[in-house]
Structure formats: C-alpha cells, structure tokens
Amino acid sequence: MAEAYITGIGQSEVGVRLERHPLLLTLDAVREALDEAGLSIDQIDGVSTYPGRVPVFLGFSPVGADELIDALGIRATWHAGGGEISSQLGAVVAAAMAVKTGAARHVLCFRTVYEAAALSRPDEYPPMRKKTVDGNSQWFAPFNAMSPANWTAQYAMRHVKRYGLTREQLAQIALNDRANGVRNPRALVRKPLTLDEYMSARMVSTPLCLYDCDRFTDASTVLIVSAGDAVDEVTCTPIRIAAFAGTVERHSWDQAEWMSCYPTGEDLWKQTDYTPADVDTVQFYDGFSFQAITWLEGLGFCERGEGGRFIEGGHRIALDGELPMNTGGGQIAGGRLHGFGFAHEAVTQLRGLGGERQVSNNPRVAVATSGGGPLATALLLAND
Amino acid sequence: MTRPVPKLDAVNRPFWTGGADGELRLMRCQDCKEFIHPPRPVCRHCLSDRVAPEAVAGTGVVDTFTVNYQPWAPNMEVPFVIARVTIDGAPGVYLTTNIIGCEPDAVDIGDKVRVSFEQQGEIHYPLFEKVD
Ligand SMILES: [Zn+2]
Fold first, then answer.
1. Taking each helix axis from N to C terminus, what angle separates A289-298 and A167-181, rounded to the nearest 10 degrees?
2. Which residues of B fall within a CB distance of 8 Å from A305?
3. In this complex, is the C-beta atom of A129 within 8 Å of any C-beta atom belonging to chain B?
4. B66, A205: Cβ pair inside 8 Å?
5. Does ipTM surpass 0.90 in this model?
6. pLDDT in tens, A233-285
7. SS3 for B97?
8. Which domain holds residue A227?
9. Are A202 and B96 an interchain contact pair (Cβ–Cβ within 8 Å)?
10. Residue B77 located in a structural domain
C-alpha cells in the first residue's frame, strides 16, 4: 500500500498573551516546516486541521483550513478541517489517507491555539455566553462539572481507589515534563518542579492538583504529511506514519467504562508488525497528567491499573530511561499546543534533532498521541 | 448554588423534569429493554425507535468521584463533590451528578446513594445523597 510520511515540521513562538496575530503565528510555523522540507508553498496541495475555526471561542481555534488556503495562496486539491474526527491528530490521519489515495501530495497539517491571548483581550475575543447548555455539556455543566479536569479526575480517582495510584506516582508525569522542558528552548515553562512543590500544590479536582494541568498557550504547530512517491522532493529525513488508530466506542466523558485511549491503543497494534517493545520514545497527550498514564496502559506498555507503578520514581520515563516520555516537556511544561506538539516532538527525536533533550541510541520508533478521553488518536511513527 | 440550565427538547425533557413528580426517568428501549443514556430517540443496542422514558428506582452506587476545588465561574462555592453514579435497575447507565448532604471528604467509591431533586424553574436537577 502507498505510504505516508511526516516531512517538514514547524512551530511558532510558544507563549502566553502573545500579540502576534494568530494567522502570523501559523505563518511562522508554516515557514519553518517548508524550510525544513525544502518545499515551496506552491508544492503544498492539501490542508488539514482540527477543529477548524471555532467562532464561539476563537481563542480555542482562531484559524481554519479555508482561511489558511486563501490567506497563503494555496491551491488545494484536497482539504479538511473539523472537530468531528478522532481528536487533534486525527487531522494527520486524514492527511495520511489523502496522500495514500493520491488526493494530494504534500498536506499542510496545522493546529493554532490562541487561548491565553484571547482571554487577555476580551474586547477583541469576547467570551461566549450562552443562556442554556445542550449537547454533551448538558450532562456535566448543570452539576458544575465544567472542566475536562473534573471529567478526567473521576477516572483518575478510580485508579487511586481501585489500583492504589498515589500522588507521588502521579507526580512523575509533571516532574518529568518539567525536567525535560528545561532542555527545550521552546518550552513554555523552563523551570524544574520538585516533588515537595508538587505535593503542596493546591487541588483543582482531586486527585489532580495545579501541576497536573496544562495551561492556555498561544502557538502554532505545523506538520507536513507527504506521499510516499513525493518524499524525494524533500530535503529532511521523512518519518513514516507506520500505523494510526482512533477508535471511539462511546463519544462521552462519563458513559464509557474505559476512556477511548484503551480501544485506540489496542487497535494501533493491529495495524502494524511493530510491538510496544520496539518503541524507543513515547509522546503521550497530557493536558492532564493522568492521561499519559492511561495511554501507557491503553497501548499495552503495562497492564491496566499498573500505570502508576510503571512510572514510580520517574526513572523509566526519564530522558535516559528505558521509555523516555514527553521529551519536549509534554503540554504541562511545553505548553498547551493541543495534541500537535506530541507528533512534532516525536519527529524531532526520530531525526536526532532533539539537541539537549535528544534521546540517545538513535531512536527509530515512536508513538505520539492526542486526546484519550471520549476521543483519541495514536500515531506510530518510524524512521525506517 | 446557581447551575447552568439545560436546554429542554422533546427527548431530554423527561429526564430534566421528572423530578416534579419525584421520579428519575431514563430512556428505555421497549423492544430490547436496555436503557439509553444520554436519552435519544433510538436504541443504541437494537436500533429500535420504540423508546420511552421510564421511572427507575432512584437509588444507586458511587462509581467514582472527584472533589472540585476550582471555582470555574464567579460565585461558585467550593469544594463540592462531583460523582459518577450507577443506577440500580439500569445497568450500563452512568449519571454525572453531585453528592450533597455530607462533607466532601465523606464520599467514597461504593457508597450507596439516593436521588434528591433540586428545583430551579422548570428543571429538577437529579442530585444524590448518601444512604446508610
Ligand atoms: Zn433496543
């Protein structure tokens, strides 16, 4: 079957309350990706994004595929942008399918976030006000379960009570992120976190404390997905999308016994001859730290319920451990790049371009994920 | 505490207003007898459109919970307990709700609970309190 590769990758400045226009942040990331790939904008013939422009909260997603095509003068033979896909990296899955079928040769995938800036400029980005709640939110908001922090926390508490997950274990995700963020020049937070600081942090929604949560960030991330017969046009090392999965059983934060990262993780390995033992580094969605633990379990790196013990002490997932995780700082230190940052970091590592945070011994295979609650995407990426 | 107000429609109205008659009403398939939540006009188990709201016992068990400390809106009083409750006689259904009438740290997984409706206008919010 035709192959799909991630070629050029790019990232804008990562910050909070940035003044630069979100379309220009996107442009910065596009330029970097094109430069790396040695491609010109004229060679881009596809665009893919998640979740498209979101008018009710522009900060969440200020730039859509339509606008980018028009703004950058792209002639697109294929494009897609929307929220009803298998989470953020579902936009990369869509692009992979487009290049595999020949609908496009080089697809520009992007995710631009502007949540911190939008909140700081309410006149320009008025917060949404609705008199009533409907759709999925009607099953949560009426009980003041307003945030994904609450919804995730309930699954985390079940791990605490059923499997003995401790705060010291959970802390390892944030501690590891913050340690790695120090080595990533673009990380939002570049200061290590101590276990004492973590243990004394205020609670947000038990068992999740302040340091278990990412925070609003302004940035754009771009990944170019290229067809197998088009990679000879690029100058960077192409990274093969060896497999992808995005299985949904209940599109719901509370009706599922197990969150979507579990069926998605199982299904990923049905698409490939690789196994978890082949994986050199993992980049797991950690908008809330606990999600990274469920990805470990869902993808079979450990048994269900064993994730806390797997990361005990943090050595295993450290940069020099047996399974380096979130080497760029994840979202907790790296910033809420909303899913795309994990694929960006995986590609960086597989190319050996991680600089101070580069995983040793030539990593060849990586997993990058996004979401994990009601929706989940897993990408298996290989430099093979 | 002020609560966001669900937008009522033909499908969700029995759930949100059943408390006026003291009833917790869940959508149930009249063909295969499975419960459907969130309520929809179709059964996800057998694709039947013969579904109808039915009163259930109103008792259940705390499946999991969290104590929320973050005020997500102005004037939100914290802490409070958010819980996911299983409903006796309605296997497969979870309700996200609040556990009221006890200290937040008194709630645990496995606690038996009973529905307690809180009325605001047309809406009767199904909250739960612990039973012995
Ligand atoms: Zn049925």
1. 100
2. none
3. no
4. yes
5. yes
6. 999 999 999 999 999 999 999 999 999 999 999 999 999 999 999 999 999 99
7. strand
8. 4-124+216-233
9. no
10. yes
